[in-house]
Amino acid sequence: xxKSRNNRESMLKRLFDAVGALNHAVAQRAQKVDxxxxxxxxxxxxxxxxxxxxxxxATVNQEFExxxxxxxxxxDELCKKVRQRQPHLNDLTVExxxxxxxxxxxxxxxxxxxxxxxxxxxxxxxxPFPFKKSLWLPDxxxxxxxxxxxxxxLMHCMPVGNVEITAADPLRLGTSLDPFLSLLKVKRLxxxxxxxxxxxxxxxxxARLTDxxxxxxxxxxxxxxxxxxAYNEANSSNPIPYKLLLIFGVPEQLTDKSLxxxxxxxxxxxxxxxxxxxxxxxxxLEDRKFTGLRTAxxxxxxxxxxxxxxxxxTKHVSEISxxxxxxxxxxxxxxxxxxxxxxxxxxxxxKFSKSLTDLWCNSDYWGHDAVQGVQxxxxxxxxxxxxxxxxxxxxxEHHVLLAxxxxxxxxxxxxxxxxxxxxTYSPSELNIYLLDYKQGTEFSVYxxxxxxxxxxxxxxxxxxxxxxxxxHLTEELEKRAQEFKSRxxxxxxxxxxxxxxxxxxxxxxxxxxxxxxxxxxxxxxxxEKMLNQLLRQGRAYGIHVLLATQTLKGIQSLSMGxxxxxxxxxxxxxxxxxxxxxxxxxxxxxxxxxxxxxxxxINNSNGAKSANQRFLIPFADRxxxxxxxxxxxxxxxxxxxxxxTRIFNGxxxxxxxxxxxxxxxxxxxxxxxxxxRLSFEAEPLSLTLVNRPSSNLLISGYNDAIHDGLxxxxxxxxxxxxxxxEIIYFNGRSIVSAGxxxxxxxxxxxxxxxxxxxxxxxxxxxxxxxxxxxxxxxIDGLDSxxxxxxxxxxxRPVKKDEPPSPQESIKKILEDGPLHGTFVIAFADNxxxxxxxxxxxxxxxEMRIGFCMNEDDAGxxxxxxxxxxxxxxxxxxxxxxxxxxNQVSWFRPYVNGEKL
Length: 900
Ligand SMILES: Nc1ncnc2c1ncn2[C@@H]1O[C@H](COP(=O)(O)OP(=O)(O)OP(=O)(O)O)[C@@H](O)[C@H]1O
Prior knowledge:
Blueprint: H1 3-9, H2 11-39, H3 47-85, E1 106-116, E2 119-128, E3 134-138, H4 141-157, E4 163-168, H5 199-221, H6 228-234, E5 242-250, H7 256-268, E6 274-280, H8 291-300, E7 301-303, H9 309-316, E8 321-325, H10 332-350, H11 356-360, E9 374-380, E10 386-391, E11 400-403, H12 410-424, E12 430-436, E13 454-459, H13 463-486, H14 492-498, E14 505-511, H15 521-541, E15 543-549, H16 560-565, E16 569-572, H17 577-583, E17 599-603, E18 612-616, H18 622-638, E19 646-649, H19 659-664, E20 670-677, E21 684-689, E22 697-700, H20 704-719, E23 726-731, H21 741-744, E24 753-755, H22 765-768, E25 775-780, H23 806-816, E26 823-828, H24 831-837, H25 839-842, E27 847-851, H26 855-863, E28 878-882, E29 887-893
Parallel strand pairs: 3-6, 3-7, 4-5, 5-6, 11-15, 11-16, 12-13, 12-14, 13-19, 14-15, 22-26, 22-27, 23-24, 23-25, 25-26
Antiparallel strand pairs: 1-2, 1-8, 9-10, 16-17, 17-18, 20-21, 20-29, 27-28, 28-29
Helix pairs in contact: 2-3, 5-7, 7-8, 12-18, 13-15
This protein binds adenosine-5'-triphosphate.
């Protein structure tokens, strides 16, 4: 037992000992004086004897004085100490509310008036705490003041947040607690937020408290711990609160069941920190019906006004007289102020204050392997027990559904989970894929520095991109399946047990996963298929999925029920009843009662109501998280893990690589490196200009950043090629492409021949020189260059020796050029205009790149026919269509570092 506990335990004794010391001084003096009286009886002594007597008496008095003063000083110090913590009730202030964690070992009730001859003094009247027995009083309103005093004392000197009061006042409808009614709103203090008056609610409350006591005895104390105070002594960071059960007017409204519960509480409550305090109508207890209760009261409780420490004290102090004096009750305004402070303090303490780092306390980084599953702490029960998140084990679930309305703390919980996982498991035990569909930067903290365990950090993702991630993971699953088969092992556990090869578990986390299903069947169908495969087969291969969403409403049509039925672990934060039933399970509405943040429910039984576990989630403070990530990165460096985190940011196009990168590419054919494919691997989209008819490239879309980025990448790609004799750039847009001007102005190895007027292009010469030189003709603004448009001129008969029109020349180049290595790359901002004014030319452009187009325009642009093509209306991607091969590829074009 700790030293401080010993000190605390002895306070009452020390106080009594100090009074005992005073008494001792008095007693000693009396004894010594007696002896002197005996030795020198009477007054009629000879002078010599008289002097000796006088001298000895003086010495005795001196000694007494010394001893008395010293004892008094000590007593005074002790009294001050007690009063510092427990002033008189009329001196209570906000400053002396107990905001610490120490429980008192005695409660001050009034004072004791001590007198000896002319001396008089006061000491606090301390009553040992916790009470060993229940308390009762006759049901008279005069007795209520004692109860009020007890309440006030407990509220003020118990650590804030650690008193809970259940009160019933059936006859006076709550008025028995008049002075405290303003506190009923404080849920932490009065969980029912009212005084109970009816038999059914009283029965329920008693049943709950009895269950609570039973649970403590069986599951917390387990026969090893003897009492509430012993438990709290051993668990000082996580104490059990003290519960006061006040029932006025017993046996009013007590049913047979209530009587039974009350009997149990009178007997076992005090040892478990549940103190029944009853006011009793004694005449009614005469009834035979209440014999059991009467016996329990006699046996297990004490009359409240007869707990008299003065009796004990009088045994110590025969010489000093002791009189008890009642506590002072505060004035109305002092009481109002004080109760308001208590209310504030309790409200504040109700705000859950545990921090993220409390979750892993001092546990080592990466201290576990994931062979038998993954288990990490994610919060606490209200009693302070750690609540684990477990997946992948023999007796645990494998996939997780997390849902809660906006603001309920989903992102926070995901951070808590990610940090807890990355604290516990190294990158060779666990790989995390983070796919976030939210607008915002929630997961970007894991991108820089990259979280060593993260294989992917994708923010503001595209549904199309999400599908590629699912495809990557299903490939991984199939690879694992092959590998396991070749080694004749059944599952991840057997593989890890039988092989020294490294194989981490995988956890895919998709935030706002419903977005995957919101873009029509084109994306939803493959997404659903692959997700289904991961959910069905992932368990055997150590691949797990966590799906987070605000609501499941609206995605029901997509056999969502079937998907969800394969997810055994459900985590629900605050939401509507309807959502609660969807997330947790039919008729499981408990999540609608949560106050999130920080409350949540975790259910590891497919949502069965009986498996609900409420828990409190710590706040993932940004600064703390940043430090933790830095620490994890540092450990990864020390242990030689070289990360390979893919970063995908859906709101930013990739930056164009440097010239060296273009130079390093193969130059066997003319290749244009235009961006990154919209796939998990994000390979470069490299388009080869092959010598085949109509292999010209038409680029259309209305977005300057993408236009300029594509133009710049084309020029940079061409600059790196060897087999091109001339690059001709014609600007028909009448605006300068700011993002590409550097590449047009001769920054590269070869000059670009620039033109702004069609006639200066000498288009008529090009078809004649196709055998001699290979040219790339870039027409920027095909749609706005009238000379290339179809019109009456295109139908006129060509007269002999008349030079061909620009339209005829370009047509010839488009038609014959590709076979000889001369290609046209044309840009058209406005596809509609281009489609109608350049229709004679369009069939020669079998390669097309489109961006920022509506579904109708995209349909005709990509396929050449009327129809719709979805997904091009955002400014963060483009599509490449090779119409000869009938291939369509999504990609993210390079830009020059501009943010979109
Ligand atoms: N356990 C917690 N303790 C204290 N504050 C919290 C806790 N969890 C979340 N919060 C706070 O609540 C607010 C909402 O949290 P969060 O962003 O995680 O909710 P959300 O469910 O992801 O919301 P949305 O879906 O709208 O993005 C934030 O201000 C956050 O700081």
